[in-house]
Amino acid sequence: MKFKRLREKMVSTQIEARGIHDQRVLEAMRKVARHLFVGEALQDQAYGDFPLPIGEGQTISQPYIVAEMTQALELTKDDRVLEIGTGSGYQTAILAELAFRVYTIERVRELFITARKLLDQLAYHNVIAKCSDGTLGWPDESPFEAIIVTAGAPEVPEKLVQQLTIGGRMVIPVGNRWSQTLFQIGRDKGGVHKTDLGGCRFVKLIGEHGWKEG
Ligand code: SAH
């Protein structure tokens, strides 16, 4: 099948070739049908080395970025993950392949509804989704072993750090409106430590502990 071949090629040339080595991540990226997460007119481009528009001024991240962020979460089968910025639901599906349960939050209702429907159709029963401001996290379900933020933040929201377990990992792009640095943040007994994973460019994280709207 055409899309399966494109997916294999995406993983070998864009992801493995750039040093992503976590076999579980590579396997999930080979499995999840990325073309289903974009509009029909864009399906043929879904396996290209770039982000694509998903409506409402938002984008589905470039495949390599999805792989890099997922690897940095160091997920095990028992982990509960919080995702901020469901968007198309593609990153959500990748996480659902690798973790015990995924809690995902999207602020734009149209995107939330479309992603929820698709994830249900694909039988991702370990995904719990809600439409709200993710910069507040999900206190009732916290703490999480892993937190991923897929929109660019002006700073690391303290509320999210508080919702990480001791030993937990967060991946988040932090910077100005035009460019950010991707950070892996680890929480241990002594506090938090940050690792710089390099430059990136995301749409804005908008909310109480993010950018203001407009
Ligand atoms: N991971 C997504 C990327 C979507 S782009 C994918 O693979 O398709 C980032 C998303 O974050 C957008 O859909 C945007 O609406 C959402 N977003 C921005 N600020 C948010 C907030 N405070 N809470 C929840 N979602 C937010």
Tell me, what is the CATH class?
A: Alpha Beta
Number of helices: 6
> Which residues sit in consecutive blocks of at least 5 with pLDDT less than 50?
none
| Whole-angstrom Rg | 16 Å
Given helix and strand content, the structural type is alpha/beta
Strand order of the largest sheet: 5-4-3-6-7-8-9
Span between termini: 43 Å
List each distinct ligand once. Answer: S-adenosyl-L-homocysteine
- Number of domain units: 1
CATH superfamily: Vaccinia Virus protein VP39
The CATH topology is given as Rossmann fold
Mean pLDDT: 97
Structure write-up:
- It is globular and about 50 Å long.
- The relative contact order is 0.13.
- It contains six helices and nine strands, in the order ααββαβαβαββαβββ.
- β3, α4 and β4 form a beta-alpha-beta unit.
- The strands form two sheets. It has a seven-stranded mixed beta sheet.
- It is α/β, with parallel strands linked by helices.
- α1 runs antiparallel to α2.
Descriptive keywords:
single chain, 214 residues, alpha/beta, Rossmann fold, seven-stranded mixed β-sheet, 9 strands, 28% strand, globular, binds S-adenosyl-L-homocysteine
Short description:
This protein has 214 residues and is an alpha/beta fold.
Question: Could you give the topology of this structure?
Answer:
Blueprint: H1 2-16, H2 23-31, E1 52-55, E2 58-60, H3 63-72, E3 80-84, H4 90-98, E4 101-106, H5 109-121, E5 127-131, E6 144-149, H6 158-162, E7 164-175, E8 180-188, E9 191-200
Parallel strand pairs: 3-4, 3-6, 4-5, 6-7
Antiparallel strand pairs: 1-2, 7-8, 8-9
Helix pairs in contact: 1-2, 1-3, 2-4
Bound molecules: S-adenosyl-L-homocysteine.
S-adenosyl-L-homocysteine is lined by residues 54, 58-61, 84-85, 87-88, 90-91, 105-108, 111, 133-135, 150-151, 203, 205-207, 210.
